Amino acid sequence: MNEKANFANTMVGTPYYLSPEMCEEKPYNEKSDIWALGCVLYEMCNQKPPFDANNQGALMLKIIRGRLHTLLL
After folding, report:
1. How much is the average pLDDT of 25-40?
2. Does the predicted TM-score (pTM) go above 0.90?
3. Shortest CA distance to 9 belongs to which of 24, 28, 23?
4. Do the Cβ atoms of 34 and 54 come closer than 8 Å?
């Protein structure tokens, strides 16, 4: 990203890895990429996505609220 545009507005990819900013349709930056990487690493370790729901709306609410699929103890 250049200095004039520090944020992006597009939405591409699987909803399982969307950052909270993207779910709320807010501008986002490279931190959303780190979020997605964290989701991939979580899924690799636990063999299930960090957030899961029956539909995309419920999935986005869980992501925004930060409620994981399973609790980490």
Report:
1. 92
2. no
3. 28
4. no
d(CA 35, CA 3): 22
- Residues in the chain, overall count: 73
Helix H, strand E, coil C: the string for the chain is CCCCCCCECCCCCCHHHCCHHHHCCCCECCHHHHHHHHHHHHHHHHCCCCCCCCCHHHHHHHHHHCCCCCCCC
User: How far from 40 is each of 47, 65, 67, CA to CA, in Å?
Assistant: 10, 19, 16
Closest alpha carbon to 27 in 35, 19, 17, 36: 19
Token digits for 70? 């399973």
Residues 23-47, mean pLDDT to the nearest whole number = 92
Neighbour tally for 35: CB within 10 Å: 18
